[in-house]
Design brief:
Blueprint (H helix, E strand, L loop, with lengths): L5 H6 L14 E4 L3 E5 L9 E5 L11 H22 L3 E6 L10 E4 L16 E3 L5 H9 L2 E6 L2 E5 L8 H9 L8 H5 L2 H23 L5 H6 L1
Antiparallel strand pairs: 1-2, 2-3, 3-5, 4-5, 4-7, 6-8, 7-8
The structure holds zinc ion (ZN).
The site of zinc ion has 5 residues, from loops.
């Protein structure tokens, strides 16, 4: 059985090891990034973008890397939104991480930000674009970033606990049972559901990249 303790994950980074469970389903490789299916999807359409280099979070990307990332991020958002009808994203900027190598999480979800941060609007503030995370990280050394549709925010990092956004979005998606990926990893029935979602995502990705102009219903049926 895989050792999923924090100590083991810090010593053997699953995002650096190309044979790890985290990198089983690669959708796309670019010069500096991997686009992969989350091995423990919160819902169908759950994708991660991971830099090949061991960087802690987007805030740590050098400007050239950030430029490549932003293009990939926008294209992946467009894929999720056109296939599944909505898109949300988050990254634990160190705060709340359970894998300590940058990975933005992207999946279909629409709803008000208060559904994710019910602590109130003093606990989150809008940011203009994802590139702003570099300056925020330089200033604060941490962040809790999330987006819903075209709106982006950072939340008060003092409310962050390990797995913070997975728990919040899992609840908002009505799929709380998948929130804790380590518990999901040990639950064969949930992993079976997850594998079926991953299979459908891979097929949707291939169909979309063959013809991005197909109506989305046709894509989901394929
Ligand atoms: Zn790593």
């Amino acid at each position: 059985m895989t050792d999923l303790s924090e100590k083991s994950i810090r010593a053997n980074c699953p995002h650096c090891n190309h044979h790890s469970f985290a990198l089983n389903h690669v959708l796309k490789t670019t010069e500096n990034f991997l686009v992969v299916c989350d091995g423990h999807p919160l819902t169908q359409g759950h994708i991660l973008i991971i830099p090949k280099a061991h960087l802690s979070c987007i805030g740590e990307y050098a400007p050239n890397l950030l430029g490549e990332f932003v293009g990939l991020y926008q294209r992946t958002k467009r894929f999720i939104e056109s296939v599944y009808g909505s898109v949300s994203t988050f990254e634990h900027g160190i705060v709340g991480q359970t894998v300590f190598h940058s990975h933005i999480q992207m999946f279909p979800y629409a709803g008000p930000p208060e559904a994710i941060i019910p602590e109130g609007d003093r606990c989150f503030e809008p940011i203009p674009d994802i590139s702003a995370l570099r300056g925020i990280y330089k200033r604060d050394g941490r962040y809790l970033f999330f987006s819903i549709g075209r709106a982006l925010w950072i939340a008060d990092p003092s409310i962050g606990v390990p797995g913070f956004f997975r728990e919040r979005f899992g609840k908002a998606l009505g799929n709380e049972v998948r929130s804790d990926w380590k518990r999901m990893h040990d639950n064969e029935a949930l992993m079976e559901e997850g594998r079926a979602d991953i299979g459908r995502l891979v097929r949707a990705w291939q169909a979309y990249h063959r013809n991005p102009h197909l109506p989305q219903e046709d894509r989901l049926r394929s």
